[in-house]
Amino acid sequence: MQLTESDLPALARGCAVLGTGGGGSVETAIPSALQALREHGPVPLVRLADLDDDALIVPMSSIGAPTVGHEMLASAEQPKRLREEVERIAGRPISAIMAGEIGGSNGVEPLAWAAQLGLPMLDADGMGRAFPELQMVSMHVAGLTSDLVILADVVGNVAALRPIDAIWSERQARALCVASGASTMMANYLMSGAQARGAVIEGSVSAALDIGRATIGHADPVAALTERLAARRLLDGKIVEVERNTGGGFVRGAVVVDGTGSYAGRMVRIEIQNENLVVFESGEVVASVPDLITVVDTQTAEAVSTETLRYGQRVSVLAWACDPLWRTPEGMAVVGPRAFGYHIDYRPVEEHVHVG
Predict the structure, then answer these.
(1) C-beta atoms surrounding 227 within 10 Å
(2) Structure confidence at residue 64 (pLDDT)
(3) Domains within the chain, CATH numbers bracketed
(4) How many CA atoms, within 13 angstroms, populate the side-chain half-sphere of residue 287?
């Protein structure tokens, strides 16, 4: 399959939904992807089964606070510098680029980078959504080591880190990210085709395309999206409060949505760390990580990222089940509510009863 300019709208819409508010706004990624496709042509989308065991797969992503990435755009030289450093250290050419996370701009930008570098894009990612920290990936859960992290920032700095584990890779990469203005580009979890089998979430690019296509041109796009995701529609309403703070390479805060229409008299509070983490209603949890929580425009079903939440927006709040990997004990230890400092027990979103 070839990814072309015509696929970009659906991919962007799907990635925005899977971003659960984070991963960077797709609006900043669309122009660069469009330009790259027009200049360099279509990008092959390859399955893991298409790659040899010794193929070099390189997850690439942007790292930092979405509010900064929305304003400080990436340089076209950053993916080139990453490739040069990766191939210098690995001693062999890259076979395919993989999105570190399929959510938000981090699901769209790898398409631009693959086009610029003349490489295929792997139909897979490390999350099936977006999470804020480096260790929150399927490769870590599968036991692969994060012993090499390469960063390239917008002014030309390139750094290769040799952390002792995934937690230290997050700490050190985040510190350099902050030094670069809270937004930079990264390659980590370099792996062979053999190592990737069973360690990545396959089919995530195709899934993003399907999600985007489900809503384009539909008479009731939110209903179509809800059906496509097998999601719970937690609330339709108006944003009445937004709290958002940028620091330490993250955006943290909360948004309050006051119910309207059939949801009048209800109110939810969504807490965020780059992504939407937990939804509370009347002090009770109605959805939480690792399940996906997305805020979409009630009229268009376009996802609203955490950096673009505004008072008065009319939105629908959706929640649906995560990839089964994250519900395992190993997955929950990495991305469950307690991993984010919430002293609550996880319940699958489909088991909550106080939802529409």
Answers:
(1) 12
(2) 78
(3) 2-204 (3.40.1610.10), 220-351 (2.40.390.10)
(4) 29
Task: Write b or e for each residue in 337-347: b if 16 or more Cβ atoms lie within 10 A of its Cβ, otherwise e.
Answer: bebbebeeebe
Statement: residue 290 has pLDDT above 90: yes
**pLDDT tens string 180-217:** 887 899 999 999 999 999 999 999 999 999 999 998 88
Q: Is the pLDDT of residue 356 over 50?
A: no
